[in-house]
């Protein structure tokens, strides 16, 4: 017996809207089963994972802080993935954005130059990420090098470069030999949104990027071209869209947003450069982009779920002694369920019986 | 290369006589088994969801009979053949083979009884030799019985000899013509010693001469007692070759007859279900100035399996249809890409649209000058499979129809224009704005053709306008092309279908191995001349 996917002729909009909900419920049930098998109460876990963070203002702010870089990076990845280009190196572009963005704030440290410096830092961060992303894209366009491998390998180069900087030329001389730079001036840090909180103005940037991307991807000719190139490259040529130009552009956008996320995180959250400026955001954002089904508004939802379970996971580790890896496990369930629900709304399953062999 | 091919074609008919003698000897021994019912399919019904692809169909093939299965695309021919071949299982009905009821669980079961298929599209490895291609497809039972490549190579030559299928086992497949490639498929089938050979549209890629050679082979096979099931919609071939025909329409059996005793129109009427419309010649109109001109276009092949274009010269006047005949793979796609701007010409002056040099302009700039293009491949080139029809309209008309405002697409206007195409070109759709891949081949092609024609082009280049399209849609498309020319546009049609070119073009030229012959007025050429030119022989302009 084998299973075949048969495309459905028409898909009801209700089924489309319901499919992510069903996916979340299923993933929750699967996670509950795993927790029960580990001898803990799934209900208590649900409480700690989901309910408590949502009712607590500190946890909500922490979620917001995690959502900002995830949303920025994943929105950029949506451009690439829709064009069927696999930028796996957002983590490296994020790091490079943080490094290039930090040049001015670090060079002028102590001069208290004011807000305009922050604006330039953000722009430089975005440019740093974009240029870094153009390396794999250019190699692909000109030499046919797989962007998957080259973008991934550039991650390690960026990370080790950052490591070198904060241990070498950019190390804080008064930092007791810790691998970290000096702290940014107040002028070059992103303002805090609410008093007594940690949520910074990067949130506003993320909202603007998501809304702008929704318009660009949904209604512009550029967004249309990306979709055509992703699904039928020959049709794109027929349509007059240059595959190489669009490939370079989506990589630049994707890298630019990852770079922006990097400098936003450093100037809004951390305040200095150090080797651990990312909690794997560049890789997690790949999951987020697919959880959001390659739509900018969906990305917000994906970032929300991932951040929620990350915060919940920390609590669960403390209170239920559940391993932190369980969170990754749950995110895996969720991704599988979302992709499966997606496939099953657009296709139906047909069972093809292979009868027993006659002797 | 050219000489080689023509000599094989000529060689076939020579060998044929000597071959017949040896076959007759074998015949005498087999004659007892050479008649009688070989296979009988009764009441075959197959449903896909709510759609009934085959509705209680009966089909019987006798030994030594060449039996035609006629029907338009979508009539249920392929489904029925897949059932006979064990690829699909019928919901109802039975198959009786040599007087015994059988059930096929897989193609292997059907193959064991001696049912072989030659498919319309070849499944060959281009970079491997004929021998390797045949060896790789042999069933395990043959391979285990002391099989080696040397013996197989001999067998191929023997079988080729016996059936007039000249083929050198060591030639790589990419160097073979379509006719020679088909011989590989047929030899593959013959090596299994078939009792019933099913051929699906075997002549669609052949020149008339290659088709003739194939018919000789098929007749020999029939004389040996092999049953043949010949799937086609080319009625003249069926009349020539087949002694019995089963006609399907819309999944139902509509008739059985002896095609030699029917006239073509009545057969066609049975297939299509009503009076067959023919292309009406357009009202008298003026032939105007040259609107599309190609001046000595030479392009190297972009990859080893593509063709280079050699010194192509052509001109198309306004009001005229120029037909370019030729077998697939002789440079059609490369010529189309060069004309559309998907490949740029070496110099701007090589291609002229309304006397404007456009050789270095991309496809959108050529569209802006009033050109339109319809590629051969509908899904994936002319249309994006997963996109709605209105989104597919944007594909070729975003630059010319005010669909692009400050970089934003006016999708509502695209929807209106697409609905216009749907209604004017009678595109049958389910739902309001379905995705391209859900349309049948004929309907999608009508949409693509309509999309380009409603852009009111001054120059239209179309590659294989009715490939894989049902007869009704094909006539509608041809009519639309003629009407467009009558309104003053220059229309260039690249097609493998000679009937089509004879019915719509004013002048015809032949593309062979990347070179284009001079264009001759359609009234002054015969199918034979064109056929010889398609096979690569030089023909004097005086022909």
Brief overview:
The complex is a heterodimer of chains A (359) and B (543). Chain A has 359 residues and is mostly helical.
Question: What does this entry look like structurally?
Answer:
Chain A has 359 residues and is mostly helical. Chain A has a domain at 66-287. Chain A is built from 13 helices and two strands, in the order βαααααααααααααβ. Chain A has helices at residues 13-37, 42-54, 57-82, 90-107, 115-143, 147-167, 202-219, 221-231, 233-239, 243-270, 281-291, 296-320, 325-346; strands at 2-7, 347-352. Chain A is globular, with a radius of gyration of 22 Å. The mean pLDDT of chain A is 91. In chain B, 45% of the residues are buried. In chain B, the strands form five sheets. In chain B, strands 13, 16, 19, 20, 21, 22 and 23 form a seven-stranded mixed β-sheet that branches. In chain B, strands 6-7-8-3-9-10 form a six-stranded mixed β-sheet, sandwiched between helices. In chain B, strands 2-1-4-5 form a four-stranded antiparallel β-sheet, with helices on one face. The model of chain B is unreliable at 1-34 (pLDDT under 50). In chain B, helix 13 crosses helix 15 (441-453) and helix 15 (441-453) runs parallel beside helix 16 (471-486). Chain B has 18 helices and 23 strands. Chain B folds into two domains: 2-272, Rossmann fold (3-Layer(aba) Sandwich), CATH 3.40.50; 290-534, Rossmann fold, CATH 3.40.50.300. Helix content of chain B is 37%, strand content 22%. By secondary structure, chain B is α/β, with parallel strands linked by helices. At the A-B interface, helix 8 and helix 9 of A face helix 12, helix 13 and strand 18 of B.
Summarize the biggest pleated sheet of chain B.
7 strands, mixed
Strand content of chain B: 15-25%
Radius of gyration of chain A: 22 Å
- Derived from helix and strand composition plus strand pairing, the structural class of chain A reads mainly alpha
Task: Give the assembly state of these chains.
Answer: heterodimer
Tally of DSSP helical segments of chain A: 13
CATH architecture of the largest domain in chain B: 3-Layer(aba) Sandwich
Mean pLDDT of chain A: 91
Helix content of chain B: 25-40%
Count of β-strands of chain B: 23
Number of strands of chain A: 2
């Amino acid at each position: 017996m084998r299973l075949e996917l048969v495309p459905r002729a028409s898909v009801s909009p209700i089924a489309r809207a319901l499919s992510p909900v069903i996916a979340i419920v299923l993933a929750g049930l699967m996670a509950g089963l795993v927790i029960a098998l580990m001898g803990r109460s799934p209900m208590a876990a649900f409480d700690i994972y989901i309910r408590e963070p949502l009712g607590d203002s500190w946890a909500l702010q922490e979620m917001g802080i995690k959502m900002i870089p995830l949303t920025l990076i994943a929105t950029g990845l949506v451009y690439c993935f829709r064009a069927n280009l696999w930028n796996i190196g957002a983590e490296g572009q994020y790091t490079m954005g943080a490094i290039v963005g930090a040049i001015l704030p670090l060079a002028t440290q102590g001069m208290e130059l004011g807000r305009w410096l922050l604006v330039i830092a953000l722009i430089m961060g975005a440019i740093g990420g974009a240029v870094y992303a153009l390396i794999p894209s250019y190699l692909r366009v000109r030499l046919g090098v797989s962007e998957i491998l080259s973008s991934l390998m550039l991650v390690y180069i960026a990370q080790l470069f950052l490591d070198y900087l904060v241990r070498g030329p950019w190390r804080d001389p008064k930092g007791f030999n810790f691998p970290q730079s000096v702290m940014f001036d107040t002028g070059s840090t992103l303002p805090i949104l609410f008093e007594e909180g940690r949520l910074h103005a990067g949130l506003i940037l993320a909202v603007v990027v998501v809304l702008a991307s929704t318009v660009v991807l949904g209604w512009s000719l550029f967004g249309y071209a990306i979709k055509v190139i992703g699904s039928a490259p020959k049709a794109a040529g027929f349509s007059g869209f240059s595959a190489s130009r669009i490939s370079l552009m989506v990589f630049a956008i994707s890298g630019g947003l990852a770079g922006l996320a990097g400098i936003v995180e450093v100037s809004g959250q951390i305040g200095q450069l150090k080797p651990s400026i990312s909690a794997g955001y560049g890789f997690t954002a790949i999951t987020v982009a697919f959880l959001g089904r390659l739509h900018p508004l969906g990305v917000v939802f994906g970032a929300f779920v991932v951040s929620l379970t990350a915060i919940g996971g920390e609590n669960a580790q403390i209170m239920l002694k559940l391993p932190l890896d369980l969170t990754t496990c749950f995110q895996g369930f969720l991704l599988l369920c979302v992709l499966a629900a997606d496939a099953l709304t657009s296709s139906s399953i047909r069972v093809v019986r292979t009868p027993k062999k006659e002797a | 290369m050219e000489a080689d091919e023509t000599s094989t074609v000529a060689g076939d008919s020579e060998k044929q006589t000597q071959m017949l003698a040896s076959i007759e000897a074998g015949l005498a021994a087999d004659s007892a088994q050479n008649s009688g019912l070989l296979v009988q399919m009764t009441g075959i019904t197959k449903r896909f969801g709510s759609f009934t692809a085959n509705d209680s169909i009966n089909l019987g093939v006798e030994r030594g009979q060449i039996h035609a299965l006629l029907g338009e695309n979508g009539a249920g021919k392929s489904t029925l053949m897949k059932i006979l071949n064990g690829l699909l299982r019928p919901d109802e009905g039975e198959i009786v083979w040599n007087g015994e009821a059988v059930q096929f669980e897989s193609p292997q079961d059907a193959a064991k009884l001696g049912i072989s298929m030659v498919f319309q599209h070849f499944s060959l490895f281009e970079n491997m030799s004929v021998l390797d291609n045949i060896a790789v497809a042999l069933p395990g039972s043959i391979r285990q019985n002391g099989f080696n490549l040397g013996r197989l190579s001999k067998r191929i030559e023997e079988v080729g000899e016996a059936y007039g299928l000249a083929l050198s086992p060591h030639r790589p497949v990419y160097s073979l013509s379509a006719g020679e490639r088909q011989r590989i498929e047929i030899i593959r089938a013959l090596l299994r010693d078939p009792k019933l050979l099913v051929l699906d549209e075997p002549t669609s890629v052949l020149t008339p001469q290659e088709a003739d050679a194939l018919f000789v082979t098929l007749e020999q096979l029939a004389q040996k007692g092999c049953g043949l099931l010949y799937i086609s919609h080319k009625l003249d071939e069926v009349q020539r070759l087949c002694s019995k025909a089963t006609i399907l329409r819309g999944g139902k059996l509509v008739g059985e007859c002896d095609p030699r005793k029917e006239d073509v129109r009545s057969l066609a009427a049975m297939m299509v279900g009503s009076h067959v419309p023919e292309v009406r010649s357009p009202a008298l109109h003026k032939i105007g100035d040259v609107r599309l001109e190609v001046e000595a276009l030479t392009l190297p092949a972009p990859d080893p399996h593509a063709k280079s274009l050699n010194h192509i010269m052509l001109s198309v006047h306004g009001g005229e249809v120029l037909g370019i005949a030729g077998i697939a793979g002789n440079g059609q796609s490369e010529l189309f890409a060069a004309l559309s701007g998907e490949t740029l010409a070496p110099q701007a002056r090589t291609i002229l649209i309304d006397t404007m040099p456009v050789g270095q302009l991309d496809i959108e700039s050529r569209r802006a000058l009033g050109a339109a293009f319809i590629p051969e491949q509908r899904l994936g080139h002319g249309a994006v499979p997963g996109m709605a029809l209105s989104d597919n309209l944007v594909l070729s008309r975003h630059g010319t129809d005010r669909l692009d405002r400050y970089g934003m697409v006016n999708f509502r206007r695209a929807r209106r224009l697409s609905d216009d195409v749907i209604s004017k070109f009678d595109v049958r759709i389910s739902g309001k704005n379905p995705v391209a891949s859900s349309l049948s081949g004929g309907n999608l092609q009508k949409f693509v053709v309509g999309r380009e024609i409603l852009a009111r082009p001054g120059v239209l280049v179309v590659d294989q306008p009715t490939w894989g399209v049902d007869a009704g849609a094909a006539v509608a498309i041809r009519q639309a092309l003629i009407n467009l020319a009558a309104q003053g546009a220059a229309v260039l049609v690249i097609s493998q279908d000679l009937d089509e070119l004879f019915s719509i073009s004013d002048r015809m030229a032949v593309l062979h191995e990347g070179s284009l012959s001079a264009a001759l007025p359609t009234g002054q050429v015969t199918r034979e001349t064109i056929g010889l030119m398609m096979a690569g022989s030089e023909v004097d302009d005086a022909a």
